[in-house]
What does this fold into?
Amino acid sequence: MGKKHIIVDPITRIEGHLRIEAVIDENNKIVDAWSSSTMFRGIETILKGRDPRDCGLMAMRICGVCTGTHYQRSIEAVEDAFKITIPKNARIVRNLIQGSLYLHDHLVHFYHLHALDFVDVVAATKADPEKTAEEAAKWAHVAGVEPYIGGAGDFKMIQDRIIKFVKEGRLGIFGNGYWGNPHYKLTPEQNLIGVAHYLKALDIQRELSKMHAIFGGKSPHPQSIVVGGVTCVQDIKNPARIALFKELLTLGRDFVKRAYLPDIYMAGTMYADEATDGNATFHASSHKGAMGKAVGGTGGGILSFMSYGDFRLDDTGFYKSDLLFPSGLVLDGDISTVHEVDPNKISEDVTHSWYKGTGAPEHPYDGTTIPEYTGLEKKEDGYAYLKTDEKYSWIKSPLYNGKKVEVGPLARMVVGYVKGDKRIKKYVDNFLTRANLPITVLFSTVGRTAARAIETELMSDVMMEWVDELAANAASGDLSTWTEFDFDKVSVDTKGMGLAEAPRGSLGHWVKIKNGKVENYQAVVPSTWNAGPRGPNGEVGAYEGAVIGTVVADPEQPLEIIRTVHSFDPCIACAVHVVDTKGKELATYKVDPTCAF
Ligand code: NFE
Ligand code: MG
It folds into this structure.
C-alpha cells in the first residue's frame, strides 16, 4: 500500500468553512497536510472612507462569535491613533465584557464543538449509572471539588434518553459521529459523564451570554463601547445590575470548577499517552535550522507561540499597563526564552492565498486585499484537489519576523508561564500537580484543550475581583465612563493599532486615517494565524503542523484530524473578511459535494 490522499471538507463543529487535505503513509501516519478556507466574505474594504468612530460597529461584523472582541480592538486602534486614554470604569467594564466572552466561548467550544472528539456518545449507553456517579466524584475530587452531577439517578435519566434516541435511530445533534472509532479512549461511564455535562452546558452557556449583555447592552454584538470609553453608566451606577452580573458569574464559575475542569482532568489522563508520545519534537526540529527543546505529543504542532497580551490591570496606559495575559513569543520549542513582540515585524503573505499581493509580505498598515482565485485541480480520479504548490486558501498567511506562530490559550499559558507570570504559573502548576502530568503534555492536542480550560478557570476567578473593583469604584463616587476629545483636533492624518487577545488568540486591527476618514484598514485575527496556509518558503501553518505526524485509526473516519483542528477552535468567518464595497461579485466558488469524500 502506498500513500493515500484524504480530504476532510467541510470540517464540521466550527464557525465557517474549512477543508483539510492530508497525505497518509502505509502506517496511517499523516506525512503532509494543508489547511484551506473555502469561503470568501468580508469587512475590511467597506471601512475605507468611513468615520473612524464608526469602525468598531462595522468591524465586529467580521464574526458572529467573538463580536465584542473585534469591536473593542477596532475602537482601541482608533484610540491609539487619537492618543486617547479611557477612564478606570471603562477599562474594568471592557475587561468584564471580554471576560464574559471568554467564559461563554471556551465553554461552548469545549462541550458543544470539541467534546465529541473525545466522548463517544453511543458508548455511553453501556455505562453503569452507579459507577458513573463514582467516576464523576473521582475526577471532581482530583480537581478539589464536589461533582456537578452527583447522583446515579441523574445519570440514569440522561442515559435513558440517549438509549431511546439510539434505539429509534434519531440521534439528532449526535448524528453522524464516528462512534465506535478505536481512538475513542474513555470508558462507558466517562462517556456518560461527558454527555451529561454537554447537555447541562447548553443551559449554562445561555446564562453566560446574558452576562455578556449586562454591560455590553446585548449579546452577541454588544454596543456599549465607544471611542473614549463606554456608555453603560446606568449599569455601573446600579448595584442590582452589578449583583446580577456577579450572580451569573458565580453560576458559570461553579460549572467551570465542578464539571469543565474535572472533565479535562479525565480526558487529559485518558489521552495522556498521545500527549507525551514525542510527536511534537519532530515538528519543532523540522523547522528550518531550529532544534526544538520542548517535547510534546500528537497535535503539538509548530511549537512557536505568540501572545500580544491583554486585560489591562491598571490605568497606566494601553501598551504600558500590567496585563493579565503577558505579551511575548516563545519560539521553536525553546521554553527558556521569551522574546518581546515588535509590531513592526508582523506581516501577511499571499504566496499560497487567493489574493494578488504586492510581491512581498505586507505590513497590515499597508496591507491590500485583492482577490485572485485560481481554483482547484481535477485529477484523473474525478476529484478536485487543492493546488498545494500554488494558491490554496482564502486565508492569508500571517508571519512574525518571517515565521509562522501559533496563537491562542496554549500560547498565552506558555508565554505567561515561561515569562514567570505568578498567576498563570499558579494555575498551570496546580493543574499539572493535581493531574500528576508533566508540563510537556501541554504541547499536544489535548494539552491545547487543557490550556483553554486552565485559562477559563483563571478568568472566572479574576473576574470576581474585577466586578468588586468596579462596584467599589462606583461606590466611591467615580462614575466617569468617557474621556472627552475634540474629533476635529485629534483626527489629523494619523494611524493606530489595537493589538490584544481574543478567545482564539492574538488579534490586531490597524487603521490609517486621512482627512478625518479611514484610508486603510486591516485586521489580522487569531484563526488567520492558526489556519493560514504555508508561508513564502513553505513554512507550515499551525493547523498543518499540528495535523502532520498524527496516526489515524481509520482513514474513512478522520476523527484524529478533526480532533486536532478542533483543539484550536477554528473560526473561519474571522479569518477571511474581505468584501467589495458595492456588493459586486469578486469571485465565484462552486462547492462540488462529490469532492467532499
Ligand atoms: Ni470568529 Fe475570533 C476569536 C477573533 S477568530 S471567533 O476568538 O478575533 O480566531
Ligand atoms: Mg485580514
Notes: Residues 17 and 405 are 22 Å apart (CA to CA). The radius of gyration is 23 Å.
